[in-house]
Amino acid sequence: MAVTEAVENYLETILILSQMQSDVHAIDICSYLGYSRPTVSIVLKKMRDDGLVDVDNDNHIRLTDSGRAIAERMYERHKLITEFLIDIGVSKNTAQNDACKIEHDISDETFEAFKRKYKKKIK
Questions:
Q1: pLDDT the model gives residue 14
Q2: Stretch 58-86: mean pLDDT
Q3: How far apart are CA 78 and CA 96, in angstroms?
Q4: Cα(8)–Cα(10) distance, rounded to whole angstroms?
Q5: C-alpha dihedral over 97, 104, 75, 107, to 10 degrees?
Q6: Residue ranges of domains in the chain
Q7: What would the pLDDT profile of 8-22 be if each residue is shown by its tens digit?
Q8: How many CB atoms lie within 10 A of CB 84?
């Protein structure tokens, strides 16, 4: 299943929110991303249909195993790329914004090579 950049962002957001609070609701995603409720509802329905999230009777949103795997992959990329950009002198805000763009386009091969090389330097 091909996952779009938008869906990757939603999954990563749900992961981040679930680390900050016990329950994640659509309104939390709206607030975090600055999107309207109808927009978030449409994407959540697609993610539910694709088996990436579950929504219980109380409207708590949880990542499925496949959704969590994607979210964790994106979040790892985001954190490491942000850290690297800050390390080379980019401001924190710019580094976070640029990392969000880069994390979706970099290939797995390139990211793994980058991670091996960069992690050696920070040890």
A1: 98
A2: 95
A3: 8
A4: 5
A5: -130
A6: 5-69, 75-122
A7: 999 999 999 999 999
A8: 19
Tokens of 3: 């996952």
Backbone angles phi, psi at 54, to 5 degrees: -115, 145
**CATH number assigned to the domain with residue range 5-69, chosen from the 4 options 1.10.10.10, 1.20.1080.10, 1.10.3720.10, 3.40.640.10:** 1.10.10.10
| Cβ-Cβ contacts under 8 Å for 58 (sequence gap 6 or more) | 23
For the whole model, what pTM was predicted? 0.88
CATH dotted code for 75-122: 1.10.60.10
For residue range 82-112, list pLDDT tens digits in order. 999 999 999 999 999 999 999 999 999 999 9
What pLDDT does residue 118 have? 80
